[in-house]
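Kindly go through one protein, given below as sequence and tokens. The question is how this chain folds according to its tokens.

***
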Amino acid sequence: MELVKWKYCNPYSNQKYSATRSFQICGRQVLINQLPEEDITLDSNTGNVVWDGAYVMCKYLENVYNWDKLKDCSPPQATCLELGSGTGLAGLTAWLKGVDVYLSDLPTKTGLLESNIATNRHIVTAQNSIQAVPLDWYLISVFILFAT
């Protein structure tokens, strides 16, 4: 049994290291700014480009996830916090689906998120909100460690 039926067919993979990538998400063209010129290693700059996994997550959110179950939540307007947003593509997908979204990443990376929000603000007609917020997991873990 497959969790998500998926055939790898990413028409955008040839743009992986371009400064801007275009994706069709929820019937709209989403433009994502990237920073491919910075060296990407396992511990730095991994959020500078859209990874294939982010695209798969967007297609899951767009086509498989049951958004109707959020209507029964209290309060009825759902809020999404994307951790380690990178370029913010997955959070932008939730935003297109009508959810209020907080995109979070390291304080030095929120500029890229803000750029991608501004680039795509015109394609969302609903009143839901989206914003980039700084979140450093290391500082949170230190706080939790010393607070207990």
